[in-house]
Structure formats: C-alpha cells, structure tokens
Amino acid sequence: MATQIFVNLPVKDLQRSKDFWSALGYSANPQFSDENAASIVISDEIYVMVMTEPFFKTFTKKEIADATRTTEAINCLGVGSRAEVDRLVDAALAAGGSASNETMEEGPMYGRSFQDPDGHLWEVVYMDMSAMQ
User: Fold this and answer.
1) Could you list the residue range(s) of the whole structural domain that residue 122 is in?
2) What domain of life (predicted)?
3) Are 126 and 110 in contact (CB under 8 A)?
4) What CATH number corresponds to the domain at position 36?
5) Phi, psi angle pair for 20, to nearest 5°
6) 3-state SS class at 41
7) Quick check: is 67 in a domain?
8) Over pLDDT 70: what percentage of the chain?
9) CA separation (Å) from 89 to 63, 68, 132?
10) In this predicted structure, what is the pLDDT of residue 133?
11) Is residue 65 part of a domain?
12) Burial class of residue 95 (count of CB atoms within 10 Å of its CB; 0-12, 13-18, 19+)
C-alpha cells in the first residue's frame, strides 16, 4: 500500500470549506465525512481533512492557530503543468481564497500561492523535470 497523507485543518464554516474545495474540482469522500468533518480527496494518496474547530480541538491539547494572523504551515501541491497551476489558483481565488505571494518562476519551477477562506496557506507548483537534466 502506498503511503497516504491526511492534512488535518480546522475550519470555521465546514460547508464553506467543502464548497471551496469543490470549486477547485475536488470532492468529499462521504464515507469519511459528517457534520464535523469532510475528507477532501486530492488524489489516491492525498486527503485534506477539514474539521470544524470544536472537533479539531478534540485531537490536540494546544490552542488552534488563527491562520488568518499567523503562518501555521505552507501546504504545497505539485501538479503536471503550468496551466494546471493557473487553473487551480484561479479557481481558488474565484471561490473565496486570496492571493498570498507573487508568482514564482525559478528555472524549471513555476508556482503560485493562495490562502483558503480560513487563511491556510497553499502553494501550487509545476516542476519541468525535462529542464532539470
């Protein structure tokens, strides 16, 4: 079995978060979703678990970071083309996200970034592997 990753994120409004990820072309797995959380399927190995803040709090003794004021992490998705970078970030911005940094073009790497509606930071990057030889 391939290693899977589940990125667990607290959200203020679960429906808003589900709608946001749906607008980017991803869907929630109903088998692992309920009134407290939704399992957003990014790929066969990557899932974003968006959880209401009270439910998220049951998994930690620490305070929940306010991602609109502090950086808790920068989540990065690698995609297969520059066009896919632009499609995802443009969809995120249209769905209520906001731009977080300038477009990055460094050699074979192209990327853009956004904040989701709860302020969690996301980068979407394309790496042209043929240019790295």
Assistant:
1) 72-132
2) Bacteria
3) yes
4) 3.10.180.10
5) -60, -50
6) strand
7) no
8) 98
9) 29, 18, 24
10) 65
11) no
12) middle
The pTM (predicted TM-score) of the whole model is 0.93
**Strand 74-79 relative to strand 121-127, pairing:** parallel
**For residue 55, which of 17, 22, 106 has the smallest C-alpha distance?**
17
Say if residue 43 is in the same domain as residue 83: no
Instruction: Give φ, ψ of 96 to 5 degrees.
Output: 110, 0
Number of structural domains (the chain) is 2
DSSP annotation of 131 reads: G
Structure-block tokens of residue 106: 């460094």
Nearest to 91 by CA among 32, 17, 21: 21
**Could you give the CA distance from residue 89 to residue 87 in angstroms, rounded to a whole number?**
6
> For 115, phi and psi rounded to 5 degrees?
-105, 135
- Length in residues, the chain: 133
Instruction: With cut-offs at 50, 70 and 90, classify the pLDDT of residue 130.
Output: confident
